[in-house]
Structures are given as C-alpha cells and as structure tokens.
Amino acid sequence: MQLNSLPAQPSIPFILESLPNPPLAEESCPRRARTHIDLMLLAIEALELGSSEAILMMAHELELQEIIKNRVTLWRLRNTNPLRRFNQRRGLSLVEGKALVVVGCHLAKRLTVLIRQLLMAHQQLTEKNLSVEHHFRLNDYLERFRAHFRSRMNPRRAAVAAYESDEKLNQLAMDLLAQLLFCTGTYGMQRFWVSLFDGEVA
Questions:
Q1: Structure pTM?
Q2: Which of 65, 78, 87, 91 is deepest in the core (most CB within 10 A)?
Q3: Contact present, 24 and 97 (Cβ < 8 Å)
Q4: What is residue 18's DSSP assignment?
C-alpha cells in the first residue's frame, strides 16, 4: 500500500492557527456562533460606509482569499446566520468562522479610535440623560445599524422580533460596539473566538 496515495489535505492559513479548535462533535460553528459572527460584521458595516468591500480587501491582505473569495462567497458565509432573511441551510465550518472572525477583528483594530469615541459619547449622553440625537456620529452609527438589521434579518424569527423597537436595537448595537473594542485588546481575538462557544462544549 502506497503511503502517498491519500489525497492532499488543503492547508490552513497560518493566521487561523492562533484560534483554537473547540472540542465539538462536528467541525462546524454552532447556531450561536454563526449568529454572533454575522452581527459583529454588521456592526462594522454600520461604522463606516464601504465596509463590505473592506472585508474583502482585508481577507486578501490577510491571505484568506481562498476562503472568502468574493462578494458571493461572503454573502453565503454570512447567510449561515439563522436569523437572516435568506438563510443558507449549509453550515459554517470552523475554518470559515475563524476567517470571518480574524477579518472582523483586524477591521475593528483599524477602527479602535472611532469605537472608543462612540462608546465614550454614549456614556456621557447617558450620564446627562440626553438622547443619542445629540451626537451626530453616534446617531449615524445607530441609524445605519438599525437599517442594516431590519433589511437583512427575518422578522418572522422570534429572536429578531425581540428587537422590534429602536431602543432594543440601539442597545444591541452598543453591546456589539463594546465587544468590538474587546476584540482589539491583547488576545482579544482569541478570547472573542472562544466566547462564541460558551455552553457549546462539554
């Protein structure tokens, strides 16, 4: 029997090796992880115009273009989020999930200053009992996030219906902003990745 008769396994990009494989029965991302990864990217899209294109550019820069090949591939990967209107029945492999997380965290690092400014502005407005309309940039982020969420998520899903009001969507947007800042810290990317599987592993 020839040892070289086995098919060659595709190599895993080196940058993804910094994220550990959770001890799951299947090598695919569970529902919670798929949902949260997509929402993280949704928040990034709401932060800056053109962020969808920036995701593809960052994937190429990090040499992940074999996983996130183009807009269609990115759309299919993100539509594994079960809350999406056009949810894909296919799963999201751990490698694909890692690629999306790595890209998202690197984009968040580039937006660190803006993220900190918006979180600080929100805290100051809350302390003064003022509405978000008093801060143009923060209000712009929240409006875009609400618009993205409502246009892309399936309103028939109970988890989506729970965010029917502007107030609840604003809170989700701010929670995601805090998590993006968390991703920019030391080992933030690794800690965020591991947090996606809390309660999923034995």
A1: 0.90
A2: 78
A3: no
A4: G
